[in-house]
Amino acid sequence: MQRTLEKTDTELQNDVLSELKYEPSIKVTDIGVLVKNGTVTLNGYATSYNEKWQAVHAVKRVAGVKAIADDIEIQLPNSYHRTDGDIASAAINQIDWSTTIPQGTVEVTVRNGWITLEGEVEWWYQKNAAGSLVKQMAGVKGVSNSISISPKVTKKEVEADIKSAFKRSAMLDAQHIRVETSGNNVTLHGQVRNYSEYDEAERVAWSEAGVSSVDNRLEVDWMF
Asked: Would you give the distance in Å from CA 203 to the centre of its chain?
């Protein structure tokens, strides 16, 4: 594979700013971008937790980013302010209305606009769905997803199944990813070319039935 010339910090900064402008959910004029040796620091402020999350996610899509420091502060408009009780009630209603998350499996605690999710579900996608639902709510300043996964499946060839899924993926180079399992716990080693592949590898690992934890130790090296 032909190696691409490494970007300068200025080129990377311009690419990050362009990607932020390309994301319609982000007010890019309120967010600053600093780059040093491939590490991108985001500062400024966002009007919601979801906007802050979308900004970091957009930077992950840019080739050449080696690390991300998220220093964005959330400044809620007056129309977004909610009491902790209002946020908690809205959050549990969102979760109860979801057809993805079994009722009664998730507990919600809110303190100073920060939501903590606890409880127990069988699949990672159910845990992920709960976090995705509440992070978009008005008044939310942050989300800690502490839901545990307790799969009913205990006897699966987890490692073999994940490796096969990596080989099927159009986004991943399975030859550069090593999978280790200990019971229902999965550890990923190796290299990927960008944060999109990093996230995709973790998503694939979590999607395997029986996985209760994923330790993603993949290194991002877009030059390999």
From this structure: 9
